[in-house]
């Protein structure tokens, strides 16, 4: 199985490791099966035959989610395989990907198509980037993209490790990378509104796109990871 079950109706798939400014970044997408059987795909990864077969067994690929303007690389491939899928983009992406016909820009509250099952809010406060964060209610799982990066130190070589530590992305103390954190200088109050909402959700698990997911102690990890915001 390429899809790994996190809880009922929610899976992750670990994609290729990509080169990000000279660092090997593992990547991950999340799949949620909605009650009507359709599939909600967060940060789609490169497709392969086995993955397509596993998805086909779960349901119809209905929604493709680009949660921030950096996570969009395989959208056109998915749309060519699943031409009926609806593509939702975070702010800033439609201007970057003129080739894709997005259904809608993600807003600061859940889309009606999934509002009973998945909550959403925009993490605002940085002029660099906004990320839309999601919460799968039934599994109490928070789905983040780049807001927490949490790599095992074995992912890096001798010179990369100290830089990764300074950047704040080594487990078990993974957090928002330093460059993005600094950009919240004048927007912390705004960001805290989102953070408080995420805490109110009381997440048990946190799925992230880069590094080790947090399974079972989500709220505790969230408080520790976002200490920089206070
Ligand atoms: Fe990323």
Description:
24% of the residues lie in helices and 26% in strands. It has one domain (4-229): Metallo-beta-lactamase, Chain A, CATH 3.60.15. The termini are far apart. The model has no long low-confidence stretch (mean pLDDT 97). It has seven helices and 14 strands. It has helices at residues 49-58, 75-81, 93-96, 160-167, 178-182, 188-200, 218-225; strands at 4-7, 10-14, 18-20, 23-25, 28-33, 38-42, 60-66, 86-89, 104-105, 118-123, 131-136, 141-143, 205-207, 214-215. The protein has a seven-stranded mixed beta sheet. Helix 2 (75-81) links the parallel strand 7 (60-66) and strand 8 (86-89). The protein is of the alpha/beta class and 230 residues long. The radius of gyration is 17 Å and the shape is globular.
